[in-house]
Every structure is written in C-alpha cells, then in structure tokens.
Amino acid sequence: MSSNRIAYTVVDSQEHDLPGHPENPRRFQHFHRLTESPFSEQLLRVEPHEAPVSVVTSIHPPSYLTELEQAASRGPGFIDHGDTYVTPASYQAALEAAGGALNVVNAVIDGQARSGFALVRPPGHHTSATRPSGFCLLNNIAIAARYAQSRGYPRVMIVDFDVHHGNGTQALFEKDPSILYLSTHQYGIYPGTGSIQETGLGEGSGSVVNIPLPARAGDQAFEAITEQVIEPIANRFGPDILLISAGFDAHWNDPLASLQLSTTGYNQLGIALLRMAESLCEGKIVYFLEGGYDPDDLWDNILAILYSLKRESLPEDRLGPAPFPEISVDDLIETLKSIHGLHSK
Ligand SMILES: [Zn+2]
C-alpha cells in the first residue's frame, strides 16, 4: 500500500570529506542496512539528482551559488571563520543533498509515500541565504519548504530538534508568516542564537518559536514540551505539511553537546510528531538529516524515527536512558506559554 510507505533517499557525498572532521561520510556507514531492516517492505527508495538551480535560487541567490562553486573548486579548505569545509566535490554534493531532499518531498506530495526521510549530507540548517556555516552549504529544509509551497502546500511548519539552533533557517523565514519555525536546542552553545525572545520579525511576528534548553534536559523535558508547547502551537498554526530538521546530536551520548535525549526519547518524539501530522495535514511529514556524529548512535536514532513513522515503539534501546538525572524545565514551559499566548482561557 503506497499510503503507508516511507520514502527515503541516501546522499552520502563520499568526496565531501576532510580528514579528522566530524561531519564526514563515515556517519552514513550503516545506512546500507536499511534494505534489510524491519522496514524494508515499507521503504520506498527514491534516487537523488542534483536540485535544479531554479529551485535552489528560491532560497540562495545566484551570486551565492557562484561563490560556493568557486570556493569549492579551490578546495579543500574552510569557507567560513569556523569549521565549514569544502572540497572540489562539495558544490555538486550540496546540490545532490538538496535534490535528494526535494525528491523525498515529491514522493510524499505525489502520494507515492505517506512520509519521508532525506538522509543527506552536507546538512543545511545553519546556512542562511548567503552565508555558509556550521558544516552546512545549502539549506536543504528551507529549499524543500519553499518547494512544498510552490506545489500547493502554503503553510509549512518546520520543527528543528537538532541540538544546535537552526540560525540559517530562522533567518530565512523569520519575516514570513506562512512558515512557522520551531526549534529545540541546547542554549549557550554554537551558534549562540535562538533566544526565547526571538519570535519572528514584522509580518512574521510569532512565526518563530525558540525553545532553548538547559544542559541535561532529556526525555521528560521533551515529552512535556511536546505536549504543552509544540502540539498547541501546531494546532494553532494549522500546517499543510510538517518538515523536520532531524539532528541526532541531542542524544546523551553525542560528543558535541549535553542534552540527554535517549534513543527511546527520539522514538517517542517521532510518534508525537506523526500524531500531529495525522491530525493536521493528512500525515504528511518529512525528515531531513542534520547533525549526529557517532555513526552507531546515528543509525540507532534513525531507526527510532523510522519505527515512529510506523507508530511503533522501539523494540530495544542499545544505549539505554541518560546516565544523569534530568533537570526540570517547568519554569521554561511557563515562560514559553506566556510569550506565545498558550495559557488556556
Ligand atoms: Zn547540530
């Protein structure tokens, strides 16, 4: 039955690689196992192709693409003041990652699949219209969001649960009331944006929801925030499609940050997001891979999301719950309710 299928694509960008860098093709080393996973019969593999430049320029101006292509041709090297690298293959890799994202969206919009997961790299959510950063070159989810709008889905909700704030995605859409951007992230780490007070600008006022979490927030925090903040915001916004920036660096075992989601927590979050998509937008939900840097953990956490897309709990959690007690986020939730007008009555 096509209606239960999960579309996916894998763009591992083997030649976009820099020795010693955490964002590298080894992250994808287990993904070939998808075809022998418990989901194999429900998975619909879509082939990636380079995103059409005419679609990419809905987000990134042609001058940026020219600069990126030229910088890549001079690679390997860094193209920002941080550690975002390019190699001579990176421009094509970025176009293929964006193209893979578009093809998964197409499969869902065309009804070949009910949901989707674009397993692509390089990731995208730190890149604004003209500035690459945070290992990201083209903003895959932003390109997909604009594309979905062009295909007749005017209201797009983006939920970004990467441990880092998606500053690029926010900058792209913070003045746009048709795209709601909601991010959970650890506060005080890279890139330093994502304050609770950043709620959108001008006509887009209210269309940005930042949920900055303290270190050691984990499964219980996510469960409470999902129920008391994310779901009411989604109900009020009424999306036509739900797009997810899926970063798995919020797992307690990830080397880059200190949130404490478990693999079971990711599964539960995924089930809650699917439930929202089912009640609001006919189950149309598409995931886009962002961070997650331990290959074994990344694989487990992606399986947790795939189980969630079948509405199933995880049969086993190899890493188990976080080893430290969780910190309460009750005060944060009250502040969020106040800022975003979520108090009942
Ligand atoms: Zn991240």
Shape annotation: globular
Fraction in helix = 25-40%
The structure class reads: alpha/beta
Radius of gyration, taken over Cα atoms and rounded to an integer in Å: 18 Å
Please name the CATH topology: Arginase, Chain A
Q: Considering the protein shown, what is the CATH homologous superfamily?
A: Histone deacetylase domain
Bound heterogens, unique: zinc ion
How far the N terminus sits from the C terminus, by CA atoms, comes to: 43 Å
Q: How would a textbook summarize the main sheet?
A: 8 strands, parallel
Keywords:
two-stranded antiparallel sheet, 34% helix, 345 residues, globular, Arginase, Chain A, 9 helices, binds zinc ion, 8-stranded parallel sheet, alpha/beta
How does this structure look, described?
- With 345 residues, this protein is an alpha/beta fold.
- The chain is built from 9 helices and 10 strands.
- The chain has a single domain, classed as 3-Layer(aba) Sandwich (Arginase, Chain A).
- 34% of the residues lie in helices and 14% in strands.
- The chain has an 8-stranded parallel beta sheet with strand order 2-1-5-10-9-6-7-8, sandwiched between helices.
- Strand 6, helix 5 and strand 7 form a beta-alpha-beta unit.
